[in-house]
Amino acid sequence: MRINRPILVAAGLAASFPLLAASPALAAAGSTPRLSVGDVFFNAALPVQAIAVLLVAAIIAAPLLRDRTRRLVASFVAGAPLLALAAAAFTGLGAAVGYANSTVPPSATVMAPAWAEVLFLAVLGLLAAFSAVLSLGLAKSEPTGT
Predict the structure, then answer these.
(1) What's residue 44's pLDDT?
(2) I need a surface site. Which of 8, 9, 84, 122 has the fewest CB within 10 A?
(3) What contacts 74, CB < 8 A, 6 or more positions away?
(4) 145: alpha, beta or left, given left = phi > 0 and alpha = psi -120 to 50?
(5) How far apart are the C-alpha atoms of 143 and 125, rounded to whole Å?
(6) What pLDDT is stored for residue 26 in this prediction?
(7) Three-class HEC string of the chain
(8) What is the mean pLDDT of residues 112-134?
């Protein structure tokens, strides 16, 4: 069974859309500001934002490139989670240094944006790898005849 590229791209975008357009978390009550996925992205450091954009591009590119450059798509499988882990570790390191250098231990509300950024990067890396694995699996299962 042949699955068209537009369907694969739409599936990748559909998998990413809840992350990118998620409503604010409902954990905070009252009039306190709520954190959304967009806030996590826009408040991240510039290198972390660049890595997040690269991971979203990998989610979209894997289905488009699956027939032409299988090696590149295979590198998304291995590289995306590692890149996401490196960015998450960078964010976690910054949060840990800030926590260690504060005179008063910050509350969970203060630390939550850093934790959200770490988890956001991990999910993007996993989605990019998932998109690449799915694309490669479908490309291998299709007949190679012309």
Answers:
(1) 84
(2) 122
(3) 132, 136
(4) beta
(5) 30
(6) 46
(7) CCCCHHHHHHHHHHHHHHHHCCCCCCCCCCCCCCCCHHHHHHCCCHHHHHHHHHHHHHHHHHHHHCCCCHHHHHHHHHHHHHHHHHHHHHHHHHHHHHHHHCCCCCCHHHHHHHHHHHHHHHHHHHHHHHHHHHHHHHHHHCCCCC
(8) 86
Residue length of the chain: 146
Can you read off the two tokens belonging to residue 123?
């999910």
> Cβ contacts of residue 53 below 8 Å, gap of 6+?
none
pTM summary value: 0.68
Report the Cα–Cα distance between both ends of the chain, in Å, rounded. 14
**The amino acid at 103:** T
Amino acid identity at 37: V
- CA-CA distances (angstroms) from residue 1 to 62, 69, 132, 139? 19, 21, 19, 10
